[in-house]
Amino acid sequence: MTRAVGYAADPRIRFAEWLPWLAAVAGFFLLPEYLPLGARILTYVLFALSLDLILGYAGIITLGHSAFFGLGAYVAGILAAKLGVTDPLLLLLAAACAAGALGIATGAVILRTHGLTQLMLTLAIAAVCLEIAHKATSITGGADGLSGITIAPIFGAFKFDLYGRTAYLWCLALLFAGWWVTRKMIYSPFGATLCGIRENSVRMHAIGVPVYRRLLTAYTISAMLAGLAGALLAETNQFVGLNVLGFEPSGELMVMLILGGVGRLYGAFVGPLVYLIAQDFLAKQFPEYWYFGIGLMLVVVVLFARGGILGIADRIVARARKYV
Amino acid sequence: MSALLETRDLCKSFGALRVAENISFHLEAGARHALIGPNGAGKTTFVNMLTGLLPPSSGLILLGGEDITGLAQAARVKRGIGRTFQINTLFRDMSVLDNVALGVAERRGMAARVWHPASRYHDVREEALGLLETLGLAEDSGKRVVDLPYGKQRLVEIAIALGLKLRVLLLDEPAAGVPALESGMILQVLDRLPGEIAVLIIEHDMDVVFRFAQRITVLVEGTVLCEGTPPEIAGDARVQRVYLGERYG
Ligand SMILES: Nc1ncnc2c1ncn2[C@@H]1O[C@H](COP(=O)(O)OP(=O)(O)OP(=O)(O)O)[C@@H](O)[C@H]1O
Ligand SMILES: [Mg+2]
Q: Which residues are within 8 A (CB) of B30 and not within 5 positions of it... i.e. 6 or more apart?
């Protein structure tokens, strides 16, 4: 079962919630050759977390979330490559603000619509962003991508090294901050309000909730988090390609989150982990078939385990408890 | 002297279907008023217009003399008019407590707070629990709504509305779908509603209507057929004609 939020929920962090962090720290020491992949996973976890906030908690279905991720990546990349802004924290801030602004502007339109119209609008926004990045070659590099990104040491002290150690820890620190804020929000009255909107928006209107305004707030915060993740990708890869924008990365993100489990906070951790590791390993072994494997996994999860991988884990634990 | 809630020539059409025609209606402060009429008369539609769920095609809605016709639902609730639903409209997978607390928190202006956990807002929880206690739901506060018998789910509808501290409460068939065995507890709650709230109740059971209401409005095919005290309505020949042979007779 997903853990209940609301006015009687215990907000204290449980032991199990520390496990991902312990694993991440252990990974740093035990798997030094995989740190670049690790940083990528952490970045996508943050991205997936931002989607879970609006999809899993507020119930907004979107296939355009890459718009914010991509904008964040390009804002950070362009500032660094073309305008000589190299402070990593400043780049993140700028990216988050830009993505937040796009979130308000697009949210103001799409959140007034519902269902299929809304889905199509999110898709359209992502497509427009991709097209802009594609055409504005002089600033984005177009199809060749944006290179020449140099990033100053973090706080002037920690240089991004070749082995990806700094990048990994930087991603981990930001993911931790993003997780902490998101978690706090979910347990707050605001989080309970979002769940109420997801569960029954007619009822929310009838108890006096300005539903649209609350959704817009959530959407904007989510956009900022996604922008942050995009900027992280730009900083750690020191390259931005068109593949951060458009339908594909949005759909991929959705697949990751559904795989892990929607609306449970930690589904956003498990999904990208499984997906990206599978991609990394399977793609090397079976370059032509690995996507088939992911597809199969998704079908199984959607058909037999609505709560994703974490949902399956929950059921196993519940079974085991019965016999112990 | 002006009414607390007033409509002037309220009209509503769905395409060619006219479900409200020039409804001019008054509700006094503290009133116990019933709205009756055959199925499809437009009773729920009238409530939907009063709360802002549906925009009227024309006409005015005034609350305490203020024109609220164009206001959003949330703004109307903040001005003190709210409703229950004919068909349960609840957070089915949430606890009974949360169903009520969400509304209480919104009314107290703290539902958008993002920092402290919701469970730290003890006053919200206490108020919701107190309300559940007065409705005999204290023991169910931790249960999910889906796990309650239907009669108790109907009470949750009322509990949510009471948590909004309304001036005007619109009850759309509060006992609809409740088995006879459980309907007693709902009638009890109706009898104990705070006297200062003006209540408009839609109800098909004439025993309930005549016991509860001081005034009755009869709606037929979107128009007000007549309005009066229970004895006046009971003696009205037109009302008898509408209801003659119907199961509510
Ligand atoms: N959204 C809508 N679109 C089209 N027609 C509608 C809509 N809502 C209601 N109607 C129609 O308007 C008429 C009045 O419906 P309404 O629900 O207001 O009746 P009611 O008096 O509440 O009936 P009941 O006693 O069965 O609850 C019905 O004929 C109904 O089919
Ligand atoms: Mg009705």
A: B195, B196, B197, B198
